[in-house]
Amino acid sequence: MKFVMIGLDGPDGAELRKHLRPSHLERLEKLTAEKKLILAGPFGDKSGSLIVFEAGSLEEAVAWGEADPYVSGGVFSRYEIKPFTQVFPKE
Length: 91
What we know:
Layout: E1 2-9, H1 13-33, E2 37-42, E3 48-54, H2 58-66, H3 69-72, E4 76-84
Antiparallel strand pairs: 1-3, 1-4, 2-3
């Protein structure tokens, strides 16, 4: 199943990102190696980030999100994880 994680930065998000980015990217590299990462990146207005990834269940996706350094380290003041249906591009 695919999921989308939308994280919105808190007031100290930009500063915290500087320190937490390497560990955050390491987790995304692991998802990439497992062929579970669809896409990821920050919003152009620097207000947060989006990650589309695969997980076995919503519980697994939420656990993955909660363990992300941007969540546990306070970069995101708010985040959501929702099931996602890819329509385009067709797989």
